[in-house]
Amino acid sequence: MNNITYFKDQFEQLQEANPNDTIADLRQNGFDAFTKDGVPTYRDEDWKYTNVSSLFDKEYLIAENSTITLADVNTIRLPGYKQANELVFVNGRFIANLSTIRSGTTDLVVLPLEEAAKGEYKEIVAAHLNQSSNYLNDGIHALNTSFINGGVFVHVLKGKEPEHPVYCYHILDARQNPALAQPRSLVLADENSRLQITESYTTLGASDSFNNQVMEVVVKENAYVEYYKIQNDTANASQVNSTHIRQIGRSYVHTVTITLNGGIVRNNMNLVLDAAGNETHLYGLYLLKGKSHADNHTLIDNLKPNCFSNQLYKGIADDTSTAVFNGRIMVQPNAQKTNAYQSNKNILLSENATINTKPQLEIFADDVKCSHGCTIGQLDEEAMFYLRARGIPKESAEVLLLQAFAADIVDQIKPEPLRSYVSKLIYEHLAIQ
Predict the structure, then answer these.
(1) SUF system FeS cluster assembly SufBD core domain location, by residue (predicted)?
(2) Is 70 exceeded by the pLDDT of residue 62?
């Protein structure tokens, strides 16, 4: 398929159908950038180990309508859903009649993004939507911006701590045709507020799917944000998932990314620390088998002084899978007294699996404490011998050791129902031979 021609036709139809849309100019700028930059290739340093060109060789169905029903949603709900605000996205579009908002509007506002962009929240949307393009300036991100349609705006109001967390279910309907989704979300945690948000991904059907997602999160003074991403989709499901978090007031952010199954998975996790005294914690776990490919790119950009960040990503690669980790910490000239720590640890289970890791520090200030490091190894032979000597079969011993390796990350999932759910997924993933 001719990428530019195909997407140009779809883009023009979208613009013609929404002539008075306040986001139309933003979409146009996005499509101009996509036309100019195209799809990234291995010649682009940030995409050196991840070839996404094959994802654009299919005639995806870009359609607003779907036959997804409430019964379908019931099969993929996360634990604790009866006490959660559930936002359902189908093929990239927020579907209000499949969603359930349990928090009151005095605590939490959830609106279609286009509605928020022209209503009482238009100044907020104008100020914060697409700030991620300052850091994610490739054709994939521009393509998502080109097709902003059916997105969602989530606002935790000032001083509020909603009792119910936010669950985002991303469903792709690939039962008849290859499915393309490009969800867009803008989330604002206002001053002195608290937000817990979790995203999960499901492809229904045997056809290929591609989820090109962008979520932008703005965190204001004294706000507290927990963000969890659970990727456990099918082998025919690929995604480029970009989460861009800006801490514009002194605040606390805690993120955990779990990647278990999928085709080609690229995660961009960006944290911009744009206020003095910010604190950020990033955790990630990728357990790969088969032909899965997972690429985790993280960026922590320290713009202001006295900020603290801690980052730990761990990975396991088996069969012919490929893992990529690129962690970048930037300390700008005004970010004196920054404390930033980064670690990436990996276990290679197969001679045919591949792990590429690249921790980076870019420091332009002179009064900082920063460190980074990475390791790639195999299972501890002494630990294996200890378990085998006590009558534990080899396969069971391997699962126990790998679960112990993953525990550092799983323990960072603070809600107990969600933590137990992920632990069960990991056990099933490791135990299946």
Answers:
(1) 177-405
(2) no
